């Protein structure tokens, strides 16, 4: 259920329209109408589960919970004074908007309401309506889309495929154009880097030639310790007047002598230990030797083996990812080379991507043209209008599903030529399917937990229905939860989180009573010894676990994949410490996230709502909140991305603690 709309019921004078989130909080001032929403849901569920959908009976299974005893007491008292006695309910369920209109029944003694009109509207605007045309006579009206008469032709199927193709091409084109933009930005950045680096290199070279400094001694004649990477240490030095180019001081301090020494150094390149190369290139010795052997280079497989610059460059070329990083961090020429390689690679990708984009645009034009050529002609909608009388149906058989399945086949055989030709059985299948779908759309399940869910007692009498825990014990006795199942694990896990215990046991005593035991500190104790708050929260956790278990075991309707659960809880924070109150929001979120169970929570707990704000930061659209004002009615409080609400709460909620602190401060000032 995603929405509920109510008019002229109890506190509701006009119309209240509430969109329901997976977890919806109702809060606000007392006597402002929060319970009116809950009562309407319980009354509607009773009506849907009854055998007669044409009268609103207030004595159903949930009568003890909604406590609305007759139609006269269901109407808003201010409207009743002006003789406005029409009740309206609407809810969204399984892709349908379901609407009911009721008026007081003709028999004033039973306090029931009479169905004036029922309307179901599907998301595609297909409708079914049943409305009273006088006395016990009703008209059923719906269009042919609801019984599947408009079967898609081959042209429709082909058009659907063409639409999918256009969408696929558009998505590919969007992604390719996005990648192209990123690549072009990368190329632009690389071109700037290359230009700047070349400029820096020219300036440094000019400065170096001017100062006649060498790498080995920095022009000082004193040996400088080797720095940088392997390749940096292996590059040829510039002529120096103070050393021989390797850091060794030059005895013959002449340019000719220095040049001669450098020429010898170039003929015999410097060497480096193999293990240092392996470490800097991040490659194993086995892999490196195997690769060099494949290139026809024999090398001794020892870490202490020394290699020259040629061998190093071969290894660096093979293991270029790390090598490029190494070069780029030390050598200007290598940086430029690396940038140019990347630039070439990006440009190749751009060329390839532009070709793909051109081809995709061509395919998109063809697909769009084909789609335009196959625009279907508008098909006429057939409206069916069979009528019926409730006199032909026993009061216990007056459900919408039974009406459709009985009335529709004969009508279709008489009014639809294609069905008429099918013989006596024609129309039955269509009527059966429609009845099932409408029944599924009408039905929803509401499990209600009151503020007083548990009693402080050691024994729970089985036939006592005064509290929720008695009903929960009965449900558990009829369908025990397997403690190793998902429901059992969920229950025990949240028992621990709320400090109830590690395990539980519901024991039957001679079939007339039950007791709840909790396992804690290696001992079984009665739930009553844990305190009233423990029993209150245990009832909530047990109800959630029973819903999980029932969803797993069965489905109520043929046309629903699984039973859709809605749990309504009044004041779940009752008798709980504030730290545990905040955990309630986590409990509800876990039940929905893991098992799809939805909640409507009536609460006055600031801690529950504050925690929901925090959880909403990581789980947006999971929570909804309505603040009920006694004069204005309910209004939505929207959760913002920053965790705050879009508008302030009404007075008397978040501001109370601050107001009390101010009053205390003022009182202390006066006493001084």
TrEMBL record:
Polar residues composition-biased segments: 255-268
SUPFAM superfamilies to which the protein is assigned, alphabetical: DnaJ/Hsp40 cysteine-rich domain, P-loop containing nucleoside triphosphate hydrolases
InterPro entries on file: AAA_GajA/Old/RecF-like (IPR041685), Bact_Antivir_Def_Nuclease (IPR051396), HSP_DnaJ_Cys-rich_dom (IPR001305), HSP_DnaJ_Cys-rich_dom_sf (IPR036410), P-loop_NTPase (IPR027417)
Highest classification ranks of the organism: Bacteria, Pseudomonadati, Bacteroidota, Flavobacteriia, Flavobacteriales
A Pfam family the protein falls into: AAA_15
UniProt-recorded name of the protein: AAA domain-containing protein, putative AbiEii toxin, Type IV TA system
Domain Endonuclease GajA/Old nuclease/RecF-like AAA: 2-609
Organism: Bizionia paragorgiae
Coiled coil: 173-212, 336-374
């Amino acid at each position: 259920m995603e929405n509920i709309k109510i008019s002229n019921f109890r506190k509701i004078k006009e119309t209240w329209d509430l969109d329901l989130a997976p977890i919806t909080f109702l809060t606000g001032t007392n006597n402002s109408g929060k319970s009116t929403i809950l009562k309407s849901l319980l009354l509607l569920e009773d009506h849907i589960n009854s055998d007669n959908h044409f009268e609103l009976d207030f004595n159903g299974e949930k009568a003890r919970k909604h406590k609305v005893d007759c139609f006269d007491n269901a109407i808003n008292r201010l409207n009743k004074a002006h003789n406005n006695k029409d009740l309206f309910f609407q809810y969204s369920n399984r892709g349908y908007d379901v609407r009911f209109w009721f008026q007081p029944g003709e028999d004033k003694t039973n306090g029931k309401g009479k169905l004036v009109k029922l309307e179901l509207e599907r998301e595609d605007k297909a409708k079914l309506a049943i409305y009273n045309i006088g006395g016990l006579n009703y008209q059923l009206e719906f269009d042919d889309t609801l019984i599947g008469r408009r079967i898609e032709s081959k042209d429709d199927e082909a058009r659907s495929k063409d639409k999918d193709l256009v969408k696929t091409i558009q998505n590919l084109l969007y992604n390719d154009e996005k990648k192209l933009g990123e690549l072009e930005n990368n190329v632009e950045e690389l071109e700037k880097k290359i230009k700047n680096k070349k400029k820096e290199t020219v300036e440094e070279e000019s400065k170096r030639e001017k100062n006649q400094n060498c790498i080995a001694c920095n022009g000082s004649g004193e040996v400088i310790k080797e720095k940088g990477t392997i390749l940096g240490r292996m590059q040829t030095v510039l002529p120096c007047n103070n050393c021989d180019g390797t850091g060794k001081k030059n005895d013959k301090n002449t340019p000719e002598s220095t040049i001669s020494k450098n020429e010898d150094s170039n003929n015999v390149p410097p060497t480096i230990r193999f293990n240092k190369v392996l470490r800097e290139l991040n490659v194993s010795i086995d892999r490196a030797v195997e690769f060099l052997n494949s290139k026809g280079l024999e090398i001794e497989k020892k870490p202490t083996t020394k290699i020259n610059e040629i061998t190093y460059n071969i290894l660096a070329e093979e293991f270029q990812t790390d090598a490029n990083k190494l070069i780029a961090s030390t050598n200007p020429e290598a940086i430029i080379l690396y940038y140019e390689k990347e630039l070439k690679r990006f440009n190749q990708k751009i060329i390839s991507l532009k070709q793909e984009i051109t081809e995709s645009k061509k395919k998109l034009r063809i697909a769009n043209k084909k789609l335009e050529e196959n625009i279907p002609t508008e098909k006429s909608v057939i409206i069916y209008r069979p009528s019926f009388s409730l006199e032909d149906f026993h009061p216990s058989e007056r459900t919408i599903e039974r009406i459709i399945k009985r009335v529709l086949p004969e009508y279709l055989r008489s009014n639809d030529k294609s069905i008429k030709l099918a013989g006596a059985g024609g129309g039955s299948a269509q009527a059966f399917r429609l009845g099932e779908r409408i029944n599924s759309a009408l039905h929803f399940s509401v499990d209600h937990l009151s503020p007083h869910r548990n009693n402080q007692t050691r024994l729970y009498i089985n036939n006592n229905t005064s509290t929720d825990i008695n009903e929960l014990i009965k449900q558990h006795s009829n369908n025990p939860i397997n403690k190793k199942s998902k429901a059992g694990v969920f229950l025990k896990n949240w028992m621990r989180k709320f400090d109830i215990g590690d395990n539980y046991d519901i024991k039957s005593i001679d079939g007339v009573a039950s007791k709840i035991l909790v396992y804690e500190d290696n001992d079984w104790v009665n739930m009553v010894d844990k305190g009233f708050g423990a029993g209150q929260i245990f009832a909530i956790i047990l109800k959630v676990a029973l819903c999980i278990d029932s969803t797993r075991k069965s489905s109520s309707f043929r046309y629903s994949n699984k039973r859709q659960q809605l749990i309504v809880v009044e004041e779940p924070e009752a008798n709980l410490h504030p730290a545990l109150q905040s955990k309630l929001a986590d409990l509800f979120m876990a039940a929905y996230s893991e098992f799809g169970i939805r909640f409507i929570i009536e609460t006055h707990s600031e801690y529950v709502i504050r925690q929901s704000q925090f959880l909403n930061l990581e789980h947006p659209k999971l929570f909804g909140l309505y603040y009920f004002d006694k004069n204005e009615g309910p209004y939505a409080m929207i959760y913002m991305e920053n965790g705050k609400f879009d508008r302030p709460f009404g007075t008397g909620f978040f501001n109370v603690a601050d107001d009390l602190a101010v009053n205390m401060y003022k009182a202390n000032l006066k006493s001084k």
